[in-house]
Amino acid sequence: MKYGAELQDNIFGPWRSSYVAYDALKKELKSRTQNRIWTDLDEYEFVCLLDNEHMKVHDFINAKLSEIDTRILYCERTIQSLQNSETMNSDASYTLMDETLTEILFDVNDLSRFTRVNFLAIQKILKKHDRWTLLNLRQEYVLKLREKPLDKQKFDVAIVYISALHDICRNRGKKHTGNSAAGGDQNAFERATAKYWIHPDNITEVKAIVMLHLPVLVFNTAKKWEPEDSAVSSVYFDNHNLDLYTGRLQRDEMAEAIRFRWYGPFESKNAFVERKTHHATWLNGASVKDRFRVNENRVNEFVSGAYTAEQIAQDFRATGADEAAVKDVHFIADGVQTSFREKQLEPMLRVFYNRTAFQLPGDQKLRISLDTDLTFIREDHTDGIHRRQNPPNNWRRTDVRTDYPFNHVKDSDILRFPYAVLETKLQTHLGQEPPTWLTKLIESHLVHEVPRFSKYLQGASHFYREKLPLLPWWLTEIDVDIRRARSENTGLTHTQYTNLRPDSKRQGSSSQNSATNQPLLDNDPLGGQLQSSKKQADQFYSPGKKTTASSSTVTNLGSGLSGSTANLTKEKKQKQGLGVPVAFDEEAQVGEKKKKSKKLKLEPKTFFANERTFIAWLQFCALLLSVALSLLNLGSDETARIMGGVFIGLAIVVALYALYLFEKRAWMINNHSEGRYDDIWGPAVLCILLVVA
What we know:
The protein is of the alpha+beta class. The chain folds into 3 domains: 3-171, no CATH class; 191-476, mRNA Triphosphatase Cet1, Chain A (Alpha-Beta Barrel); 606-692, no CATH class. The protein has 20 helices and 13 strands. The chain has helices spanning 3-9, 22-33, 40-84, 91-133, 137-140, 142-147, 154-170, 203-211, 243-250, 299-304, 309-318, 323-343, 436-442, 455-463, 510-523, 527-539, 586-599, 604-634, 638-670, 682-692; strands at 188-189, 192-198, 231-238, 256-263, 270-280, 286-295, 346-358, 366-378, 414-416, 420-426, 448-449, 491-493, 553-555. The strands form 2 sheets. Strands 1, 2, 3, 4, 5, 6, 7, 8, 9, 10 and 11 form an 11-stranded antiparallel sheet that branches. A hairpin with a 6-residue loop joins strand 4 (256-263) and strand 5 (270-280). Helix 4 (91-133) packs parallel to helix 16, helix 11 runs antiparallel to helix 12 and helix 18 (604-634) runs antiparallel to helix 19 (638-670). It is globular. Keywords: Membrane, Transmembrane, Transmembrane helix, Vacuole. This is SPX domain-containing protein. The chain crosses the membrane at residues 614-636, 642-662. Residues 1-143 form the SPX domain.
């Protein structure tokens, strides 16, 4: 699909003037490069035009984000009022605030999509500029994109705050009794995991869907959450033969993966020594991940063996830990140091990403993590370049911190992965089954399942491919577009407000609900404030204009959202600002159907089935030719030779007819024709001809 068409598909109403004028820039560029030489004046004027478009989009995003922050702050203050007032504290009040937060969440998702489309537009026009002018503006423009970034990381803060407020509403003002940091020092994890790739276009939408069911997990609730807190860095160890890589890829018994991990900034004082073991003998064949904490300034001593497992256990005992935990730490530390000695392990690869974790505090039965900005960086010196480790023999590079996208790192030392990675972790041994909403999510168009995906295997197979006899199976899928046609009734959609309570019926419930629930709002001392909150939220869409109060819901995937208390309006809703048009509007439905029909994905097996049918016809033709040649060569009279010629003609007719059918069906498949694909007359005519012959 051409980029201009893709851009137009994402332009909605009042946002049209705020998008990058991609077609106008392309037209200007084309007119200046055709049949004439590109001059310095052309370059200056084109850059000025591009700067204006860039600044327009950047200012629009910041303005909308500021509006969203204001709405979140208003919701936070309103929820605090609910918590501090017994008369205002009611289910109806929390439900209405929950709906307002959901509306804001949808707007964040829409603004994220807007940002993504415009970033791609600028990248595309820079690419065309360089190709048509033979200059390198794309590289020079990097600094301007850093000064006024068009990335989606800025939305993570809003999502985290919405998640916290949404969780309060879900629990009707009560706080979770569990510990948010539970699991931080846990020594062993036994979980069933599944991994999926998420296209950058769908990252924020997936975050929003998961957040409606699980809160964002914040380990340190004592401080304000910052984007840097989501950074996760891991250094993986292996030897020159890459034995750990081979063992993990082939899933050998007791195969290990050893890494040192830290969270947040490079200056973090704590590091985790982690070991993954496939079919651990001490757990009766179960796979396990175990780890312990160590001070960063003692990591090099641990690697060399100067800081022994016994000393680590003593230090851990001094913190007041129980003896069972101390023994576990000693066992893990001794096992890791044994692997370092026997397998001669060295730092090989760093993996960096920003992680958003979703989990109920204190409950580890279900945990979902979404890793974005996934980056692989070489740590080894197997190619003779020792300056990667500075100072020498340090356990990690000091010139690489957490400043994604690490533009100062040489291209030969870095790989920026094109997708985000979603990982679901279920403690199935405790009887945890995947909830319905999660099953629907992983079966939707938003995710692409990649069984057995491993970050270390991915990075190692890229940097050390010439040494590896075996490669991961998913490498062939990286260059394939994993996006699929949007599933019907799946994902985040703006819809008319309907009652979602399990005990209510869809039809005939609007007026009944309105009559029943209206007194609740009238009698609620906070009802006026809540309705004012809804009006204020709508005003952010179109300042100075009155709009019908709208509410949002999650179609299909959002079945776990709190039940509604009122059908606020029967009128058709119209979005005047952030977001896409109402999903169930008649015009939007027609447009969506047209879009789906154009983007319908064709499975390869469809073409193969057509080819198999064609080959089957040719096999029959070959049989007829065999009969014809036998009659011609072995026939004893003139009649046999005539019949041989007839069968040859019949075989030619059948072959030509089969070729016609093959080409016709191939055309119908490529053009999504709704005509008949079966053959009514062909087999019948063939039978008649054979009987006559």
